[in-house]
């Protein structure tokens, strides 16, 4: 995209997703940077304490501190940044309308209708960190980000499970033809809201999958989603019935190539051995697979993997960067 002006974003939310997004920002922000931060629940000291004591992400090098009502952080490039922080209703943000983009990561404004309240002044775009049924566009990196339209005001990046499934399912369909698909997700829970027992829940992927993938028949697609009282990475089991099943060695070779240098590069990893669930934390892949978790029985392909659901913030951040670059370059 060449040299383009750096755009500025407000980050709304300070939960697990926003914390991972902050981590991504500390590492890389070529087209869009964070300028402001706000949360309706946690105040500036609460957020700073969360960063200083994080059990998953290491913010030590960033030296988080509260300075004059801002969160001060040192980015990987060595520069110290001050993010002015507001604790209160998002619609009363003192800097409302000053950023180019509103990053809606709080989970408290799930509809585009609600998010349109943030379109004000300079702020012409909201990107929601969850499935948003009335969004102008849902864009998934590695699948349809190139469809971005400059007139889309409220956009969604999908969700962690949408990102885990869609680019891989699209690749499988293009190569082998998918007749039906099924997804099992075993999902973690936040430490501060741990429940006593596992709980089954509806997953937005079941409806969003067929919306995003025109070849996927809603009547031949099912998602089972279970929340378990545990804070680590999540588990993913995929089953596809294929029109043209390959041999297992051919499939593994093609998957390895796609992950190493093809359309799944950077999105999925195929490890030589089962890495174990803990090793995938922080990897930034939509899902991590391994050969022992790949089975072909007749026309049925099964894939077992892991995914760091919170770190789908990496894809969200890439999408935010992509849109900023497109806009600055005058793409319509
Ligand atoms: N987490 C994921 O894996 C993930 C992945 C993709 C998309 N998303 C989406 O991103 C949005 C935000 O989700 P989230 O997972 O970031 O929510 P979350 O971790 O549950 O955080 C949201 C809220 O939780 C509270 N909170 C967070 N950490 C806390 C702590 N240590 N102590 C006390 N309170 C704390 C705060 O308010 P409360 O008092 O309300 O708890 C905070 O504003 C949602 O729309 C979600 O669907 C999440």
TrEMBL record:
<dbReference type="GO" id="GO:0005829">
    <property type="term" value="C:cytosol"/>
</dbReference>
<dbReference type="GO" id="GO:0051287">
    <property type="term" value="F:NAD binding"/>
</dbReference>
<keyword id="KW-0560">Oxidoreductase</keyword>
<protein>
    <submittedName>
        <fullName>Glyceraldehyde 3-phosphate dehydrogenase</fullName>
    </submittedName>
</protein>
<dbReference type="GO" id="GO:0004365">
    <property type="term" value="F:glyceraldehyde-3-phosphate dehydrogenase (NAD+) (phosphorylating) activity"/>
</dbReference>
<comment type="similarity">
    <text>Belongs to the glyceraldehyde-3-phosphate dehydrogenase family.</text>
</comment>
<dbReference type="InterPro" id="IPR020828">
    <property type="entry name" value="GlycerAld_3-P_DH_NAD(P)-bd"/>
</dbReference>
<feature type="domain" description="Glyceraldehyde 3-phosphate dehydrogenase NAD(P) binding">
    <location>
        <begin position="8"/>
        <end position="160"/>
    </location>
</feature>
<dbReference type="InterPro" id="IPR036291">
    <property type="entry name" value="NAD(P)-bd_dom_sf"/>
</dbReference>
<dbReference type="GO" id="GO:0006096">
    <property type="term" value="P:glycolytic process"/>
</dbReference>
<dbReference type="InterPro" id="IPR020831">
    <property type="entry name" value="GlycerAld/Erythrose_P_DH"/>
</dbReference>
